[in-house]
Automatic annotation (TrEMBL):
Organism of this sequence: Pikeienuella piscinae
Example of a GO MF term: actin filament binding
A Pfam family that the UniProt record links to this protein: Aldolase_II
GO cellular component: cytoskeleton
InterPro entries, sorted: Aldolase-II_Adducin_sf, Aldolase_II/adducin_N, Aldolase_II/adducin_N_sf
Domain Class II aldolase/adducin N-terminal: from-to ranges: 21-205
Superkingdom per UniProt: Bacteria
Source taxonomy: Bacteria, Pseudomonadati, Pseudomonadota, Alphaproteobacteria, Rhodobacterales
Name of the protein: Class II aldolase/adducin N-terminal domain-containing protein
Family: Belongs to the aldolase class II family.
Signal sequence interval, chain numbering: none
SUPFAM superfamilies in the record: AraD/HMP-PK domain-like
């Protein structure tokens, strides 16, 4: 077995157990939000605080509803030999998430989804998100739009996508003709951002469907709103805490 992979650590000896539980909770909540894509898509979280590039990620071909704290892989973004091991991750996940965690130090957590409305947005010729409501305003000047889909995120494509995260302020990437990638400082931060981006995309696509003119906020108000949301105290952490309280009652095995 590759030394880059940890199997079933216990709550007593794994220093990353809380992070494991947080990430597992994010997977379970994604199922409730209907964001899963069969056995595809991946979330990852860096475990090191000292510049190391080890990260947790879901196993190859496992449904989000079965992800738990103990069955997450522990990988090293600088160890390509992991792909030769018995518990090798999905190759597209390794290429995309491994590239992000090698190249983007501010991407402590990365959530990749083909969620319905974000993916619809990614399929439009104009994938920008005008600030038509408070949720959309949260993302004013904070979104990367990738218009150069090159097939499955293998090798060069994974590196190309990761290289787009050059501005630490821009933590959402609309992956044209593909889906969405959201990065964050913590699981709570990334999951909360994912939730509101999908909500904002749903509102926008629904508004487009009316074929009526949009009432778009000014850049000044949108920028003010985005800054206010970023400085709003504790929302992301509280959001994840509430999710875990719900899961503790209904799916407690996420934390096992």
């Amino acid at each position: 077995m590759s030394s880059s992979i940890a199997r079933h650590p216990s709550t007593h000896n794994d220093p990353h157990w809380k992070l494991r539980a947080d990430l597992a909770a994010a997977f379970r909540w994604a199922v409730r939000m209907n964001w899963h894509e069969g056995v595809s898509n991946h979330f990852s979280a860096v475990v090191d605080d000292d510049g190391g590039k080890r990260f947790l990620m879901n196993r190859d071909q496992i449904h989000f509803s079965r992800v738990s704290a103990s069955n997450l892989l522990l990988l090293d973004a600088d160890d390509p030999d992991v792909m030769d091991g018995p518990d090798a991750p999905d190759p597209t996940a390794w290429a995309l998430h491994g590239s992000i965690h090698r190249r983007v130090p501010h991407a402590r957590v990365a959530i990749h989804l083909h969620s319905k409305y974000a993916t619809v947005l990614a399929c439009l010729q104009d994938s920008r998100m005008p600030a038509i409501d408070q949720n959309a305003a949260m993302f004013h000047d904070r979104v990367i739009i990738d218009e150069h889909y090159g097939g499955l995120a293998l090798d060069e494509e994974g590196e190309r996508c990761a290289a787009l995260f050059t501005d630490p302020k821009k933590k959402v990437m609309v992956m044209g003709n593909h889906g969405v990638m959201v990065i964050g400082d913590t699981v709570a931060d990334a999951l909360n951002r994912t939730y509101f981006f999908e909500r904002a995309a749903e509102n926008l696509i629904t508004a487009y469907m009316t074929q009526r003119p949009l009432r778009v906020l000014s850049d000044e108000i949108a920028a003010k709103t985005a800054a206010e949301v970023e400085s709003y105290p504790g929302q992301a952490a509280r959001h994840l805490a509430e999710i875990k309280l719900i899961l503790d009652k209904t799916e407690p095995d996420y934390a096992t």
